[in-house]
Write a structure and sequence with these properties.
two-stranded antiparallel sheet, about 250 residues
């Protein structure tokens, strides 16, 4: 019996995510759910949030499944690689796409710089319905919850102690900020100090598209300041300009 089947037997309440028992079948499912979760049925009924509870249990159980898979399949490394690809896309978006759009808008004389777009990799990983994550999610929904019922004390404790993966939240935060990037480069493969492997380092810079990023930065303005800020900072180099009746743009 799937856990979601239990929750489907409740009627929608007036408040968001609220629900109530609609018949004796609902009562039966409430008792089964309370038994699996090792809590009092009356307290569970009073909580009145079947939808929210179903979502939370599903969320935590998925994390638990990930942890179990990772013990034998290195699923964690897959998540790390996926995160790196998402961050690389964010880097591409800001350093290449948006930067070149800004140069075009400012009518800067420059040549378009080609870069490798990793959107295909992200589509393979996350695009619905055929992406790897979507397929994993679909496979998980097909699992029977009863398979875990014999170890439910242990399962619930593990689930609610897990720190969920926050990639989506991270990307949403980054999209609302002005990003500044720090690239970490591994100087050598033996993990020892004072050793600098030139070929290894340049390969990392190429893979991270840092050389292209440097070229696109050189093609435009070195800093982003208003005309007034520029005059305030560098006007001392030509004080006669500050004494004239120029507007800020002409003075700069």
């Amino acid at each position: 019996m799937l856990l979601c089947d239990c929750f489907n037997e409740f009627a929608k309440g007036q408040e968001i995510d609220s629900s109530f028992l609609k018949d004796e079948k609902s009562r039966f499912h409430l008792n089964v759910t309370a038994e699996l979760l090792m809590c009092d049925a009356k307290s569970l009924e009073d909580a009145d949030s079947a939808d929210a509870l179903a979502k939370t249990v599903y969320y935590r159980l998925f994390d638990w499944i990930v942890e179990k898979i990772n013990r034998s399949k290195q699923f964690e490394q897959f998540c790390i690689n996926f995160t790196n690809e998402k961050l690389q896309q964010h880097f591409n978006q800001h350093v290449f796409k948006m930067e070149q759009e800004e140069y075009t808008k400012e009518e800067i004389d420059w040549s378009c710089i080609e870069f490798v777009d990793n959107q295909d990799v992200l589509d393979l990983t996350e695009k619905k319905p055929g992406g790897i994550i979507a397929l994993l999610d679909e496979a998980w929904q097909a699992l029977s919850f009863s398979a875990f019922s014999s170890r439910i004390v242990e399962v619930i404790q593990i689930l609610f102690n897990w720190v969920p993966f926050k990639l989506q939240s991270l990307m949403e935060t980054l999209s609302t900020t002005e990003p500044h990037y720090i690239r970490c480069v591994k100087p050598n493969n033996v993990l020892k100090p004072a050793i600098f492997e030139n070929l290894n380092v340049i390969q990392q810079l190429r893979c991270g598209m840092m050389l292209e990023a440097i070229r696109i930065s050189c093609a435009g303005y070195p800093t982003r300041r208003t005309f007034y800020e520029f005059l305030l900072r560098f006007g001392l180099l030509a004080p006669e300009v500050l004494e004239g009746n120029y507007d800020d743009k002409v003075a700069c």
